[in-house]
Amino acid sequence: MSRQAAGRQIGSASTGRHGQIKVLYRGVLGKRDCAVAGQYDQAGVSRDRHRQATRQAALARGPGTPWTVAFDRNEVGAGWRTSIEGRADLNARLQRPMVPPTARTRDLDSTSAWTNARSTGSRTGMVERLLCARGWPLAVVLAAQAALSLRLVWSTTAFIDEGEYLTVGHLELAHFLHHAAVPDFATYLSGSPVVYPPLAAVADNIGGLAGARLLSLAFMLLTTVLLHGVTRRLMSSRLAAFFAAGLFAWLGVTQFLGAFATYDAMALAFLALATWLGVRAVEASSFQYTLIFVSCVAIVVADATKYAAVLFNPVVIAVIALRVWQVHGRRIGLAAAGGMAMAAGVLVTGMYHLAGPSYAQGISATTLSRTGGTDSIGSVLDFSAKATGIIAALAVLGAVVCAHRRRNGPGVALAWVLAAAEFLAPAEQARIHTLTSVFKHVGYGAWFACPIAGYLLAETSIMLSRLGRSIRRHPEFGAAVGSDRVARAGWALAMSAAVLLLAGSVGVKVADEQYGDWAPSGTMIADLARVLVPGGYYLVEDPSVVTYYLRREIPFPHVADTWSFAYTDPRTGRMLVNQPAYADAIRRGYFAAIVLNFGDTYTLDRALVHDIVGDHDYRLMDVIPYRTSYGPSEFKIWVRVPHRIGPRRVPKVHTRT
């Protein structure tokens, strides 16, 4: 009887209790033949792992050697026994001790050291089993992430970007609910004004600035949960998923975005959701096409939330396509890549044309044709390395280890795609020579790099198991190092934990350096609120903070900034722009108050001070010093006090420290 015929005769399938399906495949080990006894259930490990196991290259040729592997709801290696219902003659053979894991089964579960530790009664084995448990390890990671971000939420006043998006959100809500007129925000925002801003404004109405920041924290916690799920499926290892989630959750960028009321957290969450849906569709027994389509919709939502998220669309599609290739073969993998690219492209293109010329102008100005800066490439790369350099190094090393251990095309390609994603944002920022937003953007790539970085930390135990075999072969080396168990398990766990803790401590420092590194506006807002004039107009260097905190007192069009300004002289009727416009408006007493802080428009600020000092209707009300990483600076507030209406009581000039 031929091998193929024997395989068909022995192969059987039956449905047992609790929906379990038990299947036996047996053959003689050769170059392409293998024998696998697999067990899985419809609510646990999916069929694709079983298919993947049967496709692996066999062990070294041996006459008639059977090979069995047991699958259950836990990881591969949770039990190395199985049974075949109705085949008592085979059960005795299948209950024999299994052959130790090889490169073939490591492709299913990269953490075979977890299995080795399970068979030992050591404390290290107990710790590893706990880390591979369901539920609570991820809960610990999420609790630590929430605590690290919560310490920042109430620590400082709104940043100018937070003030801008929350102001836009409140105005858009007023437009939706009361048909109030709104400016054309789409022409200059780097994300759709009708996606994240209204949602953040609702959170702001409920809990103030802290409520909007807590919304970002919720998105970042969801992002970590999705990362854990994606890693567990791609690497077939709960231990790798734990390390990946821990690395990302304690990253400085993650802590920052979890306490920052901008659309970055929402955009990253939808990119993560798109990836998870696509990877989950590969293992789903039904609704695969629905999940893939919803994944494409999530990509479009992420792009609409923040236009720069489109940089990572190819990464999402490549990850899903390579996973399909691993499970179902190259032809279906390539078809999945083409289908997702076409679906996402049609959706993005359709939304772009339906949005209108205002959105086209905003997308072009902020993303496609963004004006370059003056920062050097070296400064951009150095800043990126400080933010996520640890993740980048671990990801590259993880891809190298994966290429050495797995040796299958789609698996290796997937590892390198995940690692390369970390370098996309720094490369783009270096191309346009700007440090603006680079700290937030590198967090997107870090999310994709963390699965392969977590794989490296989990795989350390396997690599060190080779050291244990070397100790057994060379006793004199073992006497110097210690027992092979300690070398194999204890050192591996200690090294991985040390790397995770190191990344977390660096992340805390990075987050503290970046968060709150802007001018505190609380005193300035309080002083300005005391001198407001009904119907008055105001000149503020960073107006978004004022329009957010004083939105109920000052209409949005009544606040001008120092970036651009147009003014019509009331006597001549001549339209003036920028510097002449500011000078004429000050001379005519157009502004009820002027607030400068000598930041990005420092040169113009000095010219404005000259115009203000030359006009006797303005009095210096307050000087509020502050310090950031760029050095010391100060707010200066001038109030208009016309002579023709008599003296007006103005607070004395004073300086706060």
Description:
The protein is α+β, with helices and mostly antiparallel strands and 657 residues long. The protein folds into three domains: 3-96, no CATH class; 131-368 and 379-408 and 416-514, no CATH class; 522-645, D-Maltodextrin-Binding Protein, domain 2 (3-Layer(aba) Sandwich). The longest helix has 40 residues, at 196-235. The chain is 60% helix and 8% strand. The strands form three sheets. The chain has a five-stranded mixed beta sheet, with helices on both faces. A three-stranded antiparallel beta sheet has the order 1-2-3. It has a two-stranded antiparallel sheet with strand order 6-7. It is elongated, with a radius of gyration of 31 Å. Helix 9 (196-235) packs parallel to helix 20 (438-473) and helix 10 packs antiparallel against helix 20. It contains 26 helices and ten strands. Residues 1-87, 90-124, 479-487 and 645-657 have low confidence and may be disordered.
Write a compact overview of the structure shown.
The chain has 657 residues and is an alpha+beta fold.
Give the strand content.
5-15%
Strand order of the largest sheet: 5-4-8-10-9
Task: Report the radius of gyration as a whole number of Å.
Answer: 31 Å
Question: What's the N-to-C terminus distance?
Answer: 92 Å
Domains (count): 3
The secondary structure category is alpha+beta
Overall form? elongated
Largest sheet: 5 strands, mixed
Q: Please report the number of helical segments.
A: 26
Provide mean pLDDT, rounded: 78
Q: Which percent range fits the helix content? A: 55-70%
Secondary-structure topology with pairs:
Elements: H1 3-10, E1 12-15, E2 20-25, E3 36-41, H2 47-55, H3 88-94, H4 103-106, H5 112-119, H6 123-131, H7 136-153, H8 160-178, H9 196-235, H10 238-249, H11 252-257, H12 264-283, H13 288-305, H14 313-328, H15 330-355, H16 357-368, H17 377-405, H18 409-421, H19 424-431, H20 438-473, H21 475-481, H22 484-514, H23 522-530, E4 537-540, H24 543-549, E5 559-560, E6 566-568, E7 575-577, H25 579-587, E8 591-596, H26 602-614, E9 618-628, E10 631-640
Parallel strand pairs: 4-5, 4-8
Antiparallel strand pairs: 1-2, 2-3, 6-7, 8-10, 9-10
Helix pairs in contact: 5-6, 7-9, 7-10, 8-9, 8-24, 9-10, 9-12, 9-20, 10-20, 10-22, 12-13, 12-14, 13-15, 14-15, 14-18, 17-18, 17-19, 17-20, 18-20, 19-20, 20-21, 20-22, 25-26
